Amino acid sequence: MTSNTSVVESVLHWLRAGYPHGVPGADYVALFAVLHRKLTEHEVGEIAEQLVEGNGAGAVTRAEIESAIATLALERPADDDVKRVAARLVAGGWPLADPADA
Length: 102
Description:
By secondary structure, the chain is mostly helical. 65% of the residues lie in helices and 0% in strands. The protein has one domain: DNA polymerase, domain 1, CATH 1.10.150.430.
């Protein structure tokens, strides 16, 4: 197991703890904004791939994730959205000092 795999698995665990019923579509832009602050582009890509592969029917698609990442590149997510997502990740064990700092 590489360190990247370990990091990716840890993040996926945190995501599943913070979003036991799956990440709602409205949270993807803010989620990737938070992830990009702690992870490399490659790690974020691996997580996106696992989110697509690990979900059942009706779950997020690759196109939806790519759209969220593209939106992030073009515009900053709302502070309230980032704080809400960061708080969920902290509740699942994500190592953020303070959701307000996200």
